């Protein structure tokens, strides 16, 4: 069975984005990019909400093309172009996008079926409304939370309306010189 893996940034006060979706508080450097790359190397599919997909798809397909592209941009662009994208969107219903599955209805049922299939991990990088529905259905297997040392006071909570308790096991704590800390939790069965 495939794992559904959350890999995302969070503020110290629990927000996944600012009040208007701002993510200008996120800190990323080469050490964090390298660490994230090890995580994505284990995934052959990426799950996005429509807004996150549009943001990613506007940058990553060609990010590695310029001669002066960073090592990270080259590597992640190659990964992005290779993996299957799964996009949750009612407005994309019926669209045909190469190497992309559109889920417009029955999110939980569709993800359960995808997880039963062959393949590596499926990684989700945010997409808060999609994420909270998947957490509430207890479908996230691993949580990789990049805790940024910032308090923003208000915003879009990473965990909202998830319902029942979900028990997790701490697998790893990785600190970075920037002050960002990655907490890796796995779901207890």
Task: Give a brief description.
The chain is α/β, with parallel strands linked by helices and 189 residues long. The protein contains 5 helices and 10 strands, in the order ββαβααββαβαββββ. A hairpin with a 5-residue loop joins β9 and β10.
Walk me through this protein's architecture.
Helix content is 26%, strand content 29%. The protein is an alpha/beta fold. It has a domain at 4-15 and 22-141: Dihydrofolate Reductase, subunit A, CATH 3.40.430.10. α1 packs parallel to α3 (71-82). The longest helix has 12 residues, at 71-82. It starts with a strand and ends with a strand.
Which homologous superfamily in CATH is the superfamily of the domain at 4-15 and 22-141? Answer: Dihydrofolate Reductase, subunit A
Over the alpha carbons, how many angstroms does the gyration radius reach?
A: 16 Å
Q: Which sequence of SSEs, written as H and E, runs from N to C?
A: EEHEHHEEHEHEEEE
Q: Trace the largest sheet across and list its strands.
A: 5-4-3-6-1-7-10-9
List low-pLDDT spans: none
Biggest sheet descriptor: 8 strands, mixed
Span between N and C termini? 14 Å
Number of helices: 5
Count of beta strands: 10
């Amino acid at each position: 069975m495939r794992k559904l893996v959350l890999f995302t940034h969070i503020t110290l006060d629990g927000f996944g984005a600012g009040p208007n979706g701002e993510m200008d508080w996120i800190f990323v450097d080469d050490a964090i990019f390298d660490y994230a790359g090890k995580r994505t190397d284990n995934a052959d599919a990426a799950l996005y909400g429509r807004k996150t997909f549009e943001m990613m798809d506007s940058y990553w397909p060609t990010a590695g093309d310029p001669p002066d592209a960073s090592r990270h941009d080259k590597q992640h662009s190659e990964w992005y172009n290779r993996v299957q994208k799964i996009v949750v969107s009612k407005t994309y219903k019926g669209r045909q996008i190469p190497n992309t599955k559109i889920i417009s209805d029955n999110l939980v049922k569709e993800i359960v079926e995808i997880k039963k299939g062959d393949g590596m991990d499926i990684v989700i990088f945010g997409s808060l409304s999609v994420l909270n529905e998947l957490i509430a259905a207890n479908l996230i297997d691993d949580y990789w939370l990049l805790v940024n040392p910032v308090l923003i006071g208000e915003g879009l909570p990473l965990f909202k309306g998830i319902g029942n308790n979900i028990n997790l096991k701490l697998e790893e704590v990785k600190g970075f010189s920037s002050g960002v800390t990655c907490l890796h939790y796995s779901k207890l069965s």
